[in-house]
From TrEMBL:
Gene name of the encoded protein: Aste57867_1264
Keyword annotations: ANK repeat, Repeat
PROSITE patterns per the UniProt record, alphabetical: ANK_REP_REGION, ANK_REPEAT
UniProt source species: Aphanomyces stellatus
Transmembrane segments: none
Protein name: Aste57867_1264 protein
UniProt xrefs under SMART domains: ANK (SM00248)
Amino acid sequence: MSAEHLVGPAHHPSLLDACRQGNPALATLLLQHDPTDSLVHATTTPSRYTPLHAAALLNCVDVAAVLLRHGADVDAQDIAGTTPLMIAASLGHRSFVRVLLEANANLNASALDGSTALHVAAYHGQLDIVDDLIDAGADVTVTRPDGVDLQLIAVREGHTDLVKALATPLKLEHVFVAASHGHLPVVVHAIAGALQHHQVETLVHSSAILAAFERGHVDVADLLLQHVDLDHLDAVLALALPKAAEAGQLEAVQYLLAQGVNVQGPDNEVATAAVHLAVQNNHLAVVETLVEKIGDARALSIPNALGHYPMHLAAQEGHAEMLAYLSLLGASVDVRFLDGSTPLHLAAEKGHLKAVILLTALGNSPDEPTEYLCGKSPRELAQLKGHVAVETFFGSL
């Protein structure tokens, strides 16, 4: 069937018009003048929507009743395997859902990705419809091929009442999901009773705490930390600081520093990692906070285990403002990576014009030889990589 069967030829009323108008009389008239019953089963191209799909989308309850009386397939699936029930459930069309349930719609029909109407309703937060589907007998245990089930959806979307209603014990993976999405009430529920006691004790071995800090959910992380053995607390905080710094979560960084994460000393690996990751990702406020806590701007001149200095990392990413800040606090541009490259080599190779201009002004030479890429200078690297703007700038010097 072509889309014309559903949409209708130009200037002629169609079932889609009937849906848009909420006009069951028009739908009845059209179907009565369709002796082959082809119209009620027609599908659009390429989506394979039926008139009942369209009615579900537009919440045309009365039109749906007409379609069903004329033999519409209540469980028709479009190209993605979506049924009218899934559409109505996702959009919160509760009365429409009830009409489909009265027509014995398949509660557990699955789309191509394995989702059922129950999954779709929960994902979109249509909790009244979730209740209706469960009351009607929908299977709450159906699991998609990717392992997602109703419980995981409820946890991920923060539907605490639904999580409680399912009354299924949560696992550590659920705590991780809830923590990473910042759903404190779900985490509270999990800690309060859904987890076995020995699982709570192993939270330190999960990544839930790190995920909470990385996403900036300090309230969730604070709750989880209360269940970490004191013998492990310092280690957890030390792991979390670089994660929070890398993600630019200033509040989380401030919290961790206030909790006493040790960032003192010239060989402090935690401080070095946090500073380098914050610099690389251009989180200036985080770098400023770390330097203030460390109390020594020389932390900005310490290489990491790979030999990269903060200057290299900022130059490679083209973070001109960060480069200016590092220089202002005394970090030298005359630092070399293990292969001999200066910050200017990296900025020129990547074509970061603003960084190139700043580094040149700070003293890096465009003609500095190095072991990097067979002895290429920054000028030669810009030419090799085709960065015309950088070449032009170097040519103006």
